[in-house]
Amino acid sequence: MPQTDSKISYDKGHLKSEELLLLYRAMLKPRLIEEKMLVLLRQGKISKWFSGIGQEAISTGVTLSLQEDEYILPMHRNLGVFTSRNIPLHRLFSQWQGKASGFTKGRDRSFHFGTQEYRIIGMISHLGPQLGVADGIALAHKLKKEKKITAVFTGEGGTSEGDFHEALNIASVWQLPVLFCIENNGYGLSTPTNEQYKCQDLAERAAGYGMESLILDGNNILEVYQNISRLAQNMRENPRPVLVEFKTFRMRGHEEASGTKYVPDELMAAWAKKDPIENYRQFLSSEEILSEDLDKKYKAEIKAEIEEDLKTANAESAMEFDESKELNDVYENFEYQDFAPKENAEELRFIDAVSQGLRQSMQKHGDLVLMGQDIAEYGGVFKITEGFVEEFGKERVRNTPICESGIVEAAMGLSIKGMKSMVELQFADFVSSGFNPVVNYLAKVHYRWGQNADVVLRMPCGAGVGAGPFHSQTNEAWFTKTPGLKVVYPAFPYDAKGLLNTAFNDPNPVLFFEHKALYRSIRQEVPVNYYTIPFGKAAKLREGNDVTIITFGAAVHWVLETLEKHPDVDADLLDLRTLQPLDTKSIFSSVKKTGKVIILQEDSLFGGIGSDIAAMINEECFEYLDAPVKRVGSLETPIPFAKALEEGYLSKAKFEAKLLELLQY
Ligand SMILES: Cc1ncc(C[n+]2csc(CCOP(=O)(O)OP(=O)(O)O)c2C)c(N)n1
User: Fold this and answer.
1) Which ranges constitute the DSSP H helices of 461-583?
2) List of the chain residues with pLDDT < 70
3) Distance (Å) from CA 454 to ligand 1 centroid
């Protein structure tokens, strides 16, 4: 190897001069952009900057090793991913300035965006969730036999999150072609590695998941590029996940304002000598591949491009607030298509209706994948997917490890690849273990950058079955308050089937609540054909003039029992069926007619949807009211196990008295 001042030893292998130069130029571009950004930051022209200076060999090396139509999920320091995919710089600048030509219409900042055009799926702030999203994209590739890999980045700090462990485990169990890239840059914000993890190298973790791993010098572009190119080709042929730990260093603060005081000077100085660009420049010049003139030419060209594109971005006007545009982008547009029920019907239990709807949706949507714990051969704990493996195969009916977050994230990944999916939560209570991706990823992704999340979460929920605090919750209120989600809550077999079919046609994330106490207790004639029911339309189960009763789920049946006992009560009974969208029209017109309203919910009272409905009625129907709006909810305690305690807890016990009280008002 020729003499060089380089602190990094390079082996150019079979790479030709043009390729070697291309790699140099690719690293130079993010560096020069960053240098410009630091100036703009000092001038107060941009608000925040996460620097990747010193880490360029990883972003550019990995990106250039992949095919252009392979997905990459980068982090906040991976500018080189974006520039290596040749995104026009003015679009990046507009994105950082919150302008319309960026990727989020000013709705999200910095690198928090995705673009299908460039096959880049940006992070959400929570760092970890994208690791599971990469699993979903890779699963789609695998199911479609596309021989593509997916690369996803994390810092070493992010590897402490549960998402990392879940994603690696899922990828390994399912042998998904995901390249997990850890950029180990020494610090997570101010936390050094010895306060982040205890093993020698993070690559060791792969063994625990039955996965291969590799450690690479993240400052050596040739080591990165050649190894990842080879590995990627191999993974395309033999799909499997691989964990790569890139050793590198973060040369600037976590973000510019936070500084680097906590980093010892000697450490900084040692790594400064290992700068990936300067060392490589010296190597190329010692090899007589890069002349001084060519180097100058590259720099001048890139700087000119930066200046030109900055002008374009600066000239673009700032975003203006338009309420209807903001509201219109929360959900992907869905044109409801009505499939009418036919006459031929059979009596089904609630549970059979759900199962039949699911089966017919699987038949209708060839790309629909079901995921959940024990849903394959075992048929799920409630047996809703019994026989599905025989009919649809194990690729589409997938048992999952016990990792709700990772699976919701994988569902998101499938949607990025245009596939539909269902996640069966074994019990709705366990959605708390997958809460973050539901409320922060699925719910916000369409508003942020126009990507839909075509996911149905099935939520067996509710009390009355003596199952205690962790198998009895009806937790719809955790989701009805989050814009971007749809929430469906049927009370009858007929509705359950039709609404479930609609949920799979709707391209948005739908939480589908199924009350366990109704599964085997409620029967109804259900058309055997495939039919749909639109969201946002309450069912009027009784027509009356004295009082409006508003409810949903199992509570509908409690009301029906009460009305049986009191045939003289002349009530309008509304079963909401869907909570988001909410049929406010039917609510208001009924209240305006009767002048009295009682809202019954199974959940404990405070902060439930009943409170919002009551507030809306007060605002919209005040002058029509003959009595205060009455809310009835369960006790403000967790849900107890013993029969008498559970009965005492439930709002069912209070409803009759409250109704009669209201009628007397
Ligand atoms: C769930 C979550 N917790 C905390 C944070 C705040 N935070 C943002 S970046 C960061 C450090 C990340 O370190 P690392 O993953 O090593 O990446 P690096 O910034 O070093 O590239 C922290 C603590 C966050 N964004 N998300």
Assistant:
1) 477-480, 493-505, 516-519, 554-565
2) 1-6
3) 28
